[in-house]
Design brief:
Layout (H helix, E strand, L loop, with lengths): L1 H15 L10 E4 L5 E4 L9 E2 L11 E7 L8 H10 L3 E8 L2 H9 L3 E10 L2 E9 L5 E8 L6 E9 L8 E7 L10 H12 L6 E6 L5 H14 L2 E2 L9 E2 L2 E2 L1 E6 L1 E8 L10 E7 L1
Parallel strand pairs: 4-5, 10-11
Antiparallel strand pairs: 1-2, 1-6, 3-8, 4-17, 5-7, 6-7, 8-9, 9-10, 11-15, 12-15, 13-14, 16-17
Helix pairs in contact: 2-3, 4-5
């Protein structure tokens, strides 16, 4: 296994010398007036930071999409992203670079967004981005460092109000660490995510790029799911990409009834997008 990803790690290490990692993680979020604010929203603090977002999701049908954008380096990503935005209420992106083209596509689609920054590279912030048709009521961020590269991967938890419900819907967007031999750091990253969601009483969605390229990592994700009473969403026609023969991209849910789940092939990223529609019980 190591011989497959060591050359990739070497390339990534060269790129690492060009990135800027802030001492303290922060989030960038779109304000109502169109400006971008920088906020510290650490999940390590008690509870999530209140964002006082307005609006609520319709519990009868919530459409959530998850896609690793591959840093927007592949031709055609804009068209596929616009299509994904048009059919989604909540959009989770991994390896998102906050370039003007990305902002324009999301904001033209009528979505508000937050980015949990991992690092800055070539004048753009990169991390996981969550966009939605309603502003979240609260949010918090996590990050974990790649043991070999010292570049972090991020997770972003957003909490949305739901019409007619007291409890919010918690949506976690994760990009798991990759270049880590064995389970070094991987367990700690998932454990921190579980700690942040452990006290949430309402429905939960965790989705993103879990980098589950071996059985040990699959086991860690299953342990997180058991801890939070989550179940994986089944895709009747499963076009999710596989690496080393294993699926990387997952959606796990609790407290919802899935109506439809689809994954389709694209050439605009090295990951295929996932789309799930569910009803909140």
């Amino acid at each position: 296994m190591l011989r497959h990803w060591l050359p990739v790690a070497a390339i990534a290490a060269a790129v690492a010398s060009c990135v800027t990692v802030p001492e303290q993680q922060y989030a960038l979020l779109l304000e109502t007036d169109g400006t971008v604010a920088q906020r510290t929203l650490s999940c390590a603090q008690p509870g999530a930071a209140d964002l006082a977002g307005e609006g609520a999701l319709d519990p009868r049908a919530v459409r959530i999409a998850s896609w690793n954008l591959h840093k927007e380096v592949d031709p055609g990503w804009q068209a596929d992203l616009v299509d994904l935005i048009s059919r989604s209420d909540v959009l989770l992106l991994q390896e998102a670079g906050l370039a003007p083209e990305l902002r324009a596509a999301i904001e033209r689609g009528g979505l508000r967004w937050l980015l949990a920054s991992s690092f800055a590279y070539l004048d753009a912030e990169y991390g996981v981005l969550t966009a939605a048709r309603v502003a979240p009521a609260a949010a918090c961020t996590l990050r974990a460092y790649e043991p070999l590269l010292a570049i972090p991967k991020s997770a972003l938890i957003t909490y949305f109000r739901v019409i007619g419900r007291d409890a919010t819907l918690a949506v976690a967007n994760i990009h798991a660490i990759n270049f880590a031999p064995g389970g070094m750091g991987y367990h700690a990253q998932l454990e921190a995510l579980g700690d942040a969601l452990a006290a949430h009483p309402g429905p939960v969605v965790i989705a993103g790029d879990f980098n589950t390229w071996n059985e040990a990592r699959d086991g860690e994700v299953r342990a997180l799911a058991a801890r939070l009473s989550l179940v994986p969403v089944a895709f009747p026609v499963d076009a999710r990409r596989r690496f080393f023969g294993r699926i990387f991209d997952w959606v796990y849910v609790r407290g919802v009834e899935v109506h439809d789940a689809t994954a389709w092939e694209v050439t605009s990223s090295d990951h295929n997008p996932l789309h799930v529609t569910f009803r909140i019980r």
